[in-house]
UniProtKB/TrEMBL annotation:
InterPro entries: DUF92_TMEM19. The chain crosses the membrane at residues 80-105, 117-136, 157-176. It is a multi-pass membrane protein. It comes from the Eukaryota. It is found in: Membrane. Keywords: Membrane, Transmembrane, Transmembrane helix. Belongs to the TMEM19 family. GO terms for cellular component: chloroplast inner membrane. It comes from Panicum hallii var. hallii. It holds the Pfam family DUF92. This is Uncharacterized protein.
Amino acid sequence: MACSLLPLHAPLSSRPAPRTLPVFPRGTRVLRHRPPPPLLPPPRALPDIAAGAASGIRDALADAFLASPPTWRSAAASNFAVFVAGSPVLLSGLSASGFAAAYLLGTLTWRAFGPPGFLLVVAYFVVGTAVTKLKIKQKEAQGVAEKRGGRRGPGSVIGSSAAGCACALLSIYHVGGTAFSELWRLGFVASFCTKLSDTVSSEIGKAFGRTTIGIW
Protein backbone atom coordinates (compact mmCIF):
# COMPACT_ATOMS: atom_id res chain seq x y z
CA MET A 1 0.00 0.00 0.00
CA ALA A 2 2.85 2.44 0.73
CA CYS A 3 4.23 1.98 -2.72
CA SER A 4 0.93 2.99 -4.28
CA LEU A 5 1.30 6.50 -2.84
CA LEU A 6 4.36 7.25 -5.00
CA PRO A 7 3.90 8.72 -8.45
CA LEU A 8 4.24 6.27 -11.25
CA HIS A 9 7.31 7.97 -12.76
CA ALA A 10 8.96 9.25 -9.53
CA PRO A 11 12.82 9.27 -9.65
CA LEU A 12 14.50 6.64 -7.59
CA SER A 13 17.12 9.11 -6.24
CA SER A 14 16.71 12.61 -4.75
CA ARG A 15 19.96 13.88 -6.35
CA PRO A 16 19.39 16.61 -8.94
CA ALA A 17 20.08 15.88 -12.52
CA PRO A 18 23.54 17.01 -13.74
CA ARG A 19 23.68 20.42 -15.45
CA THR A 20 24.59 20.43 -19.05
CA LEU A 21 26.13 23.47 -20.75
CA PRO A 22 24.24 24.82 -23.70
CA VAL A 23 25.77 24.04 -27.03
CA PHE A 24 26.07 26.97 -29.45
CA PRO A 25 26.87 26.73 -33.11
CA ARG A 26 30.45 27.47 -34.09
CA GLY A 27 31.14 31.21 -34.53
CA THR A 28 28.46 32.32 -32.05
CA ARG A 29 29.63 35.22 -29.86
CA VAL A 30 28.78 34.66 -26.22
CA LEU A 31 28.46 37.73 -24.01
CA ARG A 32 29.77 37.23 -20.51
CA HIS A 33 28.47 39.07 -17.50
CA ARG A 34 30.93 41.64 -16.15
CA PRO A 35 30.82 43.01 -12.59
CA PRO A 36 29.75 46.65 -12.30
CA PRO A 37 32.54 49.27 -12.02
CA PRO A 38 33.52 50.42 -8.49
CA LEU A 39 31.55 53.25 -7.08
CA LEU A 40 33.17 56.70 -7.38
CA PRO A 41 33.41 58.97 -4.32
CA PRO A 42 30.53 61.35 -3.84
CA PRO A 43 30.84 64.42 -6.08
CA ARG A 44 31.19 66.70 -3.04
CA ALA A 45 34.26 64.89 -1.67
CA LEU A 46 36.77 66.51 -4.06
CA PRO A 47 35.57 70.09 -3.39
CA ASP A 48 35.84 69.38 0.34
CA ILE A 49 39.45 68.20 -0.08
CA ALA A 50 40.32 71.26 -2.16
CA ALA A 51 38.69 73.55 0.38
CA GLY A 52 40.68 71.93 3.18
CA ALA A 53 43.95 72.32 1.27
CA ALA A 54 43.17 75.97 0.48
CA SER A 55 42.36 76.62 4.13
CA GLY A 56 45.66 75.05 5.21
CA ILE A 57 47.66 77.17 2.76
CA ARG A 58 45.80 80.30 3.85
CA ASP A 59 46.53 79.58 7.52
CA ALA A 60 50.22 78.95 6.77
CA LEU A 61 50.52 82.23 4.87
CA ALA A 62 48.70 84.07 7.66
CA ASP A 63 51.14 82.63 10.21
CA ALA A 64 54.06 83.69 8.02
CA PHE A 65 52.93 87.25 7.36
CA LEU A 66 51.26 88.01 10.68
CA ALA A 67 53.73 86.44 13.11
CA SER A 68 54.42 88.99 15.82
CA PRO A 69 57.18 89.42 16.70
CA PRO A 70 58.65 88.09 13.44
CA THR A 71 60.73 84.90 13.55
CA TRP A 72 63.47 83.81 11.16
CA ARG A 73 61.06 81.33 9.58
CA SER A 74 58.24 83.85 9.12
CA ALA A 75 60.69 86.45 7.80
CA ALA A 76 62.15 84.02 5.24
CA ALA A 77 58.68 82.84 4.12
CA SER A 78 57.28 86.36 3.81
CA ASN A 79 60.34 87.60 1.96
CA PHE A 80 60.22 84.59 -0.36
CA ALA A 81 56.59 85.31 -1.28
CA VAL A 82 57.40 88.95 -2.03
CA PHE A 83 60.47 88.02 -4.11
CA VAL A 84 58.52 85.48 -6.18
CA ALA A 85 55.73 87.98 -6.86
CA GLY A 86 58.14 90.85 -7.62
CA SER A 87 60.91 88.91 -9.38
CA PRO A 88 60.40 90.64 -12.78
CA VAL A 89 60.92 94.06 -11.18
CA LEU A 90 63.77 92.89 -8.96
CA LEU A 91 65.68 91.24 -11.81
CA SER A 92 65.41 94.42 -13.85
CA GLY A 93 67.51 96.24 -11.26
CA LEU A 94 69.66 93.42 -9.84
CA SER A 95 72.05 90.83 -11.19
CA ALA A 96 71.53 87.18 -10.20
CA SER A 97 74.06 87.42 -7.36
CA GLY A 98 72.63 90.80 -6.38
CA PHE A 99 69.19 89.18 -6.25
CA ALA A 100 70.48 86.60 -3.75
CA ALA A 101 72.13 89.29 -1.62
CA ALA A 102 68.92 91.33 -1.65
CA TYR A 103 66.96 88.28 -0.45
CA LEU A 104 69.25 87.96 2.57
CA LEU A 105 68.88 91.68 3.24
CA GLY A 106 65.09 91.46 3.01
CA THR A 107 64.93 88.49 5.38
CA LEU A 108 67.18 90.23 7.91
CA THR A 109 65.13 93.42 7.68
CA TRP A 110 61.78 91.63 8.14
CA ARG A 111 63.15 89.68 11.12
CA ALA A 112 64.42 92.83 12.81
CA PHE A 113 61.74 95.44 12.08
CA GLY A 114 58.81 93.60 10.48
CA PRO A 115 56.82 94.86 7.47
CA PRO A 116 57.49 98.61 8.13
CA GLY A 117 61.26 98.15 7.91
CA PHE A 118 60.87 95.89 4.88
CA LEU A 119 58.74 98.50 3.09
CA LEU A 120 61.47 101.10 3.68
CA VAL A 121 63.99 98.84 1.91
CA VAL A 122 61.49 98.24 -0.92
CA ALA A 123 61.02 102.00 -1.35
CA TYR A 124 64.80 102.47 -1.40
CA PHE A 125 65.16 99.82 -4.13
CA VAL A 126 62.29 101.11 -6.31
CA VAL A 127 63.33 104.76 -6.20
CA GLY A 128 67.03 103.97 -6.50
CA THR A 129 66.45 101.69 -9.51
CA ALA A 130 64.24 104.30 -11.20
CA VAL A 131 66.84 107.07 -10.99
CA THR A 132 69.63 104.67 -12.00
CA LYS A 133 67.74 103.77 -15.19
CA LEU A 134 67.07 107.44 -15.92
CA LYS A 135 68.75 108.31 -19.27
CA ILE A 136 70.77 105.11 -19.02
CA LYS A 137 71.89 105.27 -22.68
CA GLN A 138 73.30 108.76 -22.21
CA LYS A 139 75.11 107.69 -19.04
CA GLU A 140 76.58 104.67 -20.82
CA ALA A 141 77.80 106.88 -23.67
CA GLN A 142 79.48 109.17 -21.16
CA GLY A 143 80.94 106.23 -19.21
CA VAL A 144 79.25 107.16 -15.93
CA ALA A 145 76.47 104.52 -15.86
CA GLU A 146 76.30 101.58 -13.47
CA LYS A 147 77.67 98.36 -14.92
CA ARG A 148 75.41 95.64 -16.38
CA GLY A 149 72.93 98.19 -17.71
CA GLY A 150 72.22 99.63 -14.30
CA ARG A 151 71.66 96.26 -12.62
CA ARG A 152 73.40 96.33 -9.26
CA GLY A 153 75.47 93.41 -8.01
CA PRO A 154 76.06 92.04 -4.50
CA GLY A 155 78.81 94.56 -3.79
CA SER A 156 76.42 97.45 -4.35
CA VAL A 157 73.68 95.79 -2.28
CA ILE A 158 75.98 95.04 0.64
CA GLY A 159 77.72 98.41 0.48
CA SER A 160 74.42 100.28 0.46
CA SER A 161 72.94 98.32 3.36
CA ALA A 162 75.94 97.66 5.62
CA ALA A 163 75.00 100.25 8.26
CA GLY A 164 71.33 99.24 8.16
CA CYS A 165 72.24 95.55 8.51
CA ALA A 166 74.40 96.33 11.53
CA CYS A 167 71.49 98.16 13.18
CA ALA A 168 69.16 95.25 12.33
CA LEU A 169 71.47 92.68 13.96
CA LEU A 170 71.91 94.84 17.06
CA SER A 171 68.13 95.12 17.33
CA ILE A 172 67.52 91.37 16.84
CA TYR A 173 69.92 90.39 19.60
CA HIS A 174 68.75 93.22 21.91
CA VAL A 175 72.18 94.75 22.32
CA GLY A 176 71.87 97.52 24.90
CA GLY A 177 68.41 96.32 25.98
CA THR A 178 65.22 98.33 25.70
CA ALA A 179 67.05 101.63 26.14
CA PHE A 180 68.86 101.18 22.80
CA SER A 181 66.08 99.49 20.78
CA GLU A 182 64.75 102.78 19.37
CA LEU A 183 68.29 103.93 18.66
CA TRP A 184 68.90 100.90 16.40
CA ARG A 185 65.59 101.55 14.66
CA LEU A 186 66.49 105.19 14.09
CA GLY A 187 69.93 104.23 12.78
CA PHE A 188 68.37 101.76 10.35
CA VAL A 189 65.98 104.36 8.92
CA ALA A 190 68.66 107.06 8.77
CA SER A 191 71.12 104.80 6.94
CA PHE A 192 68.74 103.99 4.10
CA CYS A 193 67.41 107.53 3.82
CA THR A 194 70.96 108.90 3.63
CA LYS A 195 72.02 106.33 1.04
CA LEU A 196 68.89 106.96 -1.04
CA SER A 197 69.43 110.73 -1.04
CA ASP A 198 73.01 110.17 -2.20
CA THR A 199 71.90 107.80 -4.99
CA VAL A 200 69.14 110.12 -6.21
CA SER A 201 71.36 113.20 -6.27
CA SER A 202 74.24 111.46 -8.05
CA GLU A 203 72.08 109.70 -10.67
CA ILE A 204 70.04 112.81 -11.45
CA GLY A 205 73.28 114.79 -11.65
CA LYS A 206 74.66 112.28 -14.17
CA ALA A 207 71.48 112.50 -16.24
CA PHE A 208 70.94 116.28 -16.30
CA GLY A 209 74.06 117.95 -14.90
CA ARG A 210 76.81 119.39 -17.08
CA THR A 211 79.49 120.16 -14.53
CA THR A 212 80.32 118.25 -11.38
CA ILE A 213 81.91 120.26 -8.57
CA GLY A 214 83.66 118.31 -5.85
CA ILE A 215 83.80 119.77 -2.36
CA TRP A 216 86.72 118.55 -0.31
